[in-house]
Design a protein that fits this description.
This is YjiS-like domain-containing protein. The chain is an all-alpha fold and 74 residues long. The protein is built from three helices and no strands. The protein has one domain. Helix 1 runs antiparallel to helix 3. It is rod-shaped, with a radius of gyration of 22 Å.
């Protein structure tokens, strides 16, 4: 009986860790997406001259925001 109880506790612990990891990952995706949208909003508010000073064109805003938040894709 002791062996069965220990297995059930281990399974519960693993399940709890899996759920915790899933919740953390979901929260991180939300934080990342908010940062992505904020970056787009702030860059979009800049004028063409200010964007040029940064070496950017308006058409590059989404790409730059994505790379800033999520990193470069290989």
């Amino acid at each position: 009986m002791t062996y069965t109880t220990e297995i059930n506790r281990s399974a519960t612990k693993v399940l709890g860790e899996d759920i915790s990891a899933a919740v953390y990952a979901a929260m991180q995706r939300i934080v990342d997406y908010r940062l992505y949208r904020r970056t787009i909003r702030e860059l979009s508010q800049l004028g063409a001259h200010d964007l040029a000073d940064l070496g950017l064109h308006r058409s590059e805003i989404r790409r730059v925001a994505r790379e800033t938040v999520y990193g470069r894709r290989s």
